[in-house]
Amino acid sequence: MRKWQSASIAVTAAAVMLLTACGQEPGGAGANAAQPAGQAEAAVPQDPGGGNGASGSTGAAQKAKPAGQLTIGDSEELGPVLTDSAGFTLYRFDKDTANPPKSACEGECVKAWPPVPAADVSSTSGIDAALLGEVTRSDGTKQLTVDGWPMYRYAKDTEPWQTNGQGVGGTWHAAAPDGKKAQPGSETGGEPAGSAPAGGSEAGADLPAISAAKDAELGEILRDAEGRTLYRFTKDSAWPMKSNCVGKCEELWKPARPVDLKDVEDIDPKLLTTFKRPDGSKQLTVDCWPLYWYTGDEKPGDTNGQGVGGTWFAVAPSGKLIKS
């Protein structure tokens, strides 16, 4: 038997073993149908009280959760919208003022429109940190402001990237990344969602399909041929291989596509395989975990997706999560 025939058989056998270990038969879809689950639990109550144009039965408002690292969602209707780390849309109220910052949403209003706390907030690419501020509410709590406008969530947004609060009462509007009212064609200050990274020291470099890069904070991290950092989602599963990032989630986190295993460096090719997503497309996995790149990374080497929502993390060449 020729040497190349032996190598081919060995690689095939390794692939069969890996697919079986991942809970998927070679060549089949396996148990990998993604569930239409959100990226996080609803950050606000689902049974809002009516106030300032909001409708619904009266219910006690939950304690507002911190926004974490702000991100940018891409709405087909509204264009770029400001979202919290879990993907929930942030809103502004026409009856508020930005100069000086002041909230007019009090009492029953906050049951439907929970104010976003000012603590534990950070920006990401495309969001100017200098625009972030706070206002002291009448109850003494601090509320996040963007360009002076107080920020709120909407109780009827029960899944990430919903914009059910848009236009309520003619006074509530999804916020754009610069604090203005979101609308098609508004500028974000970054690359359009879904665009490939451009620029940077490695732009145009002839990179392998998959390789490792040295990050000053995270150490060795996996990247694709475009220099984009690759991520794992903790709500996915490896047994069986399954992606829980679908719908709106997939607009921000793009599934990594299959690669030629002969064109990889710094990683054992045996760790890489693919599985079939619900739409029929194939996604690359490492150690059975689905891989993604983040539209919020503007240029090669960016790691703006690290820690987003407490569920997204860069990946080491071993396939393990990197939690900084």
UniProtKB/TrEMBL annotation:
InterPro entries for this protein: Lipoprotein_repeat (IPR005297), SCO0930-like (IPR047910)
Low complexity: compositionally biased ranges: 31-43, 193-205
Record Pfam families: Lipoprotein_15
A GO biological process held by the record: alkane catabolic process
Keywords: Signal
Domain of life (superkingdom): Bacteria
Start and end residues of each stretch annotated as Disordered: 27-78, 167-205
Protein name: Lipoprotein
Annotated source species: Streptomyces xinghaiensis
Signal peptide: 1-23
